[in-house]
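pasting for ref
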Amino acid sequence: MSGIVGLWNLDGRPLDPALLSAMSDALRHRGPDGDRQVVAGAMGFAHRHLWVTPEEVGEAQPLQGRRGVLLVMDGRVDNRDELIAALGLPRTASDAACVLAAYEAWGEGALQRLNGDFSLALYDPRSPCLLLVRDAIGLKPLYYHHNARFIAFASEIKGILPHPSIRCCPDEEGVADYLLLGWRPADRLDVTCFAGIRALPPAHLLRVTPDGVQAPRRYWDFDPGLAVRFATFGECAEAFRERFGEAVRRRVRSAYPVVVSVSGGLDSSAVFCVAETLRRAGTVACPALVGLSYTGAEGTTADERAYLDHIEQAYGVPIERTDLASLLGVIDGAEAQVYHSETPLLDSMWQITRRIQTTAASAGARRFVTGHWGDEMLHGTEYVVDLLRSFAWRTAWQHLVAFDQWFEPGEAWALRKQVVRELLRYHAPLWLLPFLKWTRRRLTGLDPRRRWLNGAFRRRALRFAYRPASIGRHAPTAHARGVYLQARMKYAVQCMEWNSKISALHGLDYATPFLDRDLIQFLMAVPGEIQNQGGVPRALVREGLAGILPDAIRQRRWKGDYTDPVNLGAARDLAAVRTRFAAATHAVERGYVDRRRVNAELDRLAPRLAGPDCGASWELTDLIGLESWLRVFFSQASKEAAA
């Protein structure tokens, strides 16, 4: 995790170093190991460095190549050994030095050969041209603004806003996507909540010359048509073990202690146990591995202490625990959270994340690893659609029945409904989807969620939110399409960006093995019915990590459920939410929220805060998140304070 900033006056005006410094200063929190900038006439790069990997300790960016090429990079390159061998570089070369050498050797073709989590910028004075590049998954954010006179870019939107020519105002399409799109697929990965500021989509390249800015171009993608078959389930499980182990090894390469957030669930426990196994074997550069966890009240569905005990007994290491009961809610810290995430997205467990990451930083860690996205990559039910389409009805039925053995009745029923929806979604032509959504709304009334939205804004927003998305349509199977969507949908990318920025606030580089590019391609290529052999959810993980994961965790039949503590925190803050919206608010003044509906909606949501899901709590976080975001970035008081 570092911070990169750049500015190029396309009209040839000399760049003002003070302006570049102001942009870099906005990202000071991303680089405690020093800052440096290079100005060359009309363009300039700035870099805020956080040293994480052994090879980059002591490095100062921007780097300059033999031919004058400049590079700034935030991130990690995982196939560095391959690049070093191909380019004849010393083994001590930093990841950024490998990238620069690759570009000098292969030009833009080098980008397809890079594997890792990174965002970077290259300026080639010979063309001249500027290249902005984002990694295949999108874990490292990169934003830009351009017009006929200049282009500005940064790791965070805050690094662009100091430019005096940029008018800071909300983007209605971006706000609509966030409030009404939810988890649904979206092709509009470039749209942010700030007008005129775009996110470079994952796996894309932006090419800029003095003649202007070209449209972002995809330089790499998964191959959803790739199929992998093994002679036995055991061979497949062994292949998963190797690929998952490599994904973990890549993310615990560090010159400093590495913290793993481990709950006791299958995914985070797999990350911790594999990482500790690799560290003890001496096959990864990692001086120390620290486990941190949060736990619910004893005897509740959020209490996973027993599984943490099994890990401690198996590996002889302590896992520090934090009680989450007093650290949940939707009000406390909301404005700080949206300032750093730069979106209206609030996390009800923000205070827990902040506490754990503060503890991680105090332990000297600079890499924060989680089991996030394990559910999304390994828990899809789309494969049942493939079984039905191939007339394997008996097998499909066996898997549907097996849901009852592994899930609570309500969850098993929800999974079956999900299969039906996926069956319809997979077969419906793209042109028919808007009509089906319109029909559903006409029959059921307006979307019952977000009733506090202003009616006029809702009508405008639905024009954006219900446009059809073609993302993933090229996949030959429902399973491959499902995995592809989980890696590519807009909400997933927003969550990646949120985690990356919040970790950066605490001087931590965020990483999760389940978003490893090669692992995702493997999971896309192995049929879902094999991954869930015999109807056992995540059978591939359970079998593949035998001997590494304690048996009690491998055989778990329930997941930790944090619904009750999240709802209790929201209920505790309900009165404060009422008070906040009793007076004039920015969301009302800007026409997003109907003040007359807010109290009625809060009355409706109140009893649901004791319900079986977090739907009501999420509505409260959306309401407070929107208001806090507008207050922080667009109120006159905030602008005067910033000035």
